[in-house]
Amino acid sequence: MLFVCIAGLIGNIAAIFSFSKQRKRSQKNFYTFMLYLAVYDLLYILVSIFVFVLPQFSSYYKDNGPWMYVLPWGIPIGQVSMTGGIYFTMVICLERYLTVCHPFYMYSRDWKSNPIVFGIIAFSVLYNIPKFLETSTKFDLCHINKTLSENVLTTIYSSEICEHEIRQR
User: Fold this and answer.
1) Sheet holding 145-149, edge to edge
2) Average pLDDT, whole number, for the chain?
3) Distance set, CA 95 to CA 50, 152, 161 (Å)
4) pTM for the full model?
5) Exposed, middle or buried: residue 52 (CB in 10 Å: 0-12, 13-18, 19+)?
6) Fewer CB atoms inside 10 Å of the end CB: C or N, the chain?
């Protein structure tokens, strides 16, 4: 997964630079949608690195607390970026269809991409607000406990060092 994330980081950063440059008037909407798709994909890759890749390579990151604080924010931000990426992909497909199959329709209308971009961003954030309220974590050095209260799952993790000490007793 690390190699996929590195390739994705490089590709999306290159896409952001490429699509943020000056563009032709006829292709302005396409470049805008592609720019935001690359931003959402880059955000998802960064979340994947912090949530899924770093715990595999660093026991300190996973066992001593940083992962526990990243996790409740990383998963919902990843959901927001996936939702936005899906909708930007759908808008790009629709825009390409209209450009290729109905070129005079697209050329005769000068529509702006900003309301669509704002709508997708707003929808992807608002739709995933409940994800921010679903999970909480607390790091305690020597306790392992999972509780479910008021529809919020709270998982208390402990370090492997503490678990090893408990087994030796």
Assistant:
1) 135-139, 152-157, 145-149
2) 82
3) 34, 40, 55
4) 0.77
5) middle
6) C
Over residues 54-87, the pLDDT tens digits come to 888 887 777 776 888 888 889 999 999 999 999 9
The Cα–Cα gap between 15 and 35 comes to 7
Contact 53, 1 (CB under 8 A): yes
| Residue 157: exposure state from Cβ atoms within 10 A (0-12, 13-18, ≥19) | buried
The phi and psi torsions of 77 (rounded to 5 degrees) equal -65, -35
Label residue 77 exposed, middle or buried (CB < 10 Å: 0-12, 13-18, 19+).
buried
